[in-house]
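Researcher: Next sequence.
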Amino acid sequence: MKTLLGFLMMANAVLFFFGAIQHVGVTIGRFHEPRIIPAAIVETICGISLASGAVIVLSRTVLPWSAPLVSNFIALGGVLLGMIALAAGRGPRTASNDLYHHIMLSLIGASLLALMLAKSGARQP
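Model: Next structure:
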């Protein structure tokens, strides 16, 4: 379960970094998003948080539950902030950006589920 959790968190970190690169104005193949520097900053912070949490999950024999939990909640806060800002008209909205937000939320949900399952499995005799 730790490997799955680490993979989910690292995949989400990559998605956050991908979004951050696009929001500073870099086009990657057919992928491009409007330049939104505050979004790039938030996505970078979330990506670093998730990547750090994933490294902790994958490198420790005993899982410190707080690290991946906090990492995912930081990312959740970033996604919700972005979704609320876009819904309030604070920036240009694209279908691909909405899709990214939904994928990020799904990966956070899957990570939290994996974390809960791993934690409950550790309590079993």
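Model: The helical segments are 2-23, 37-59, 66-87, 95-123. The two ends are 17 Å apart (CA to CA).
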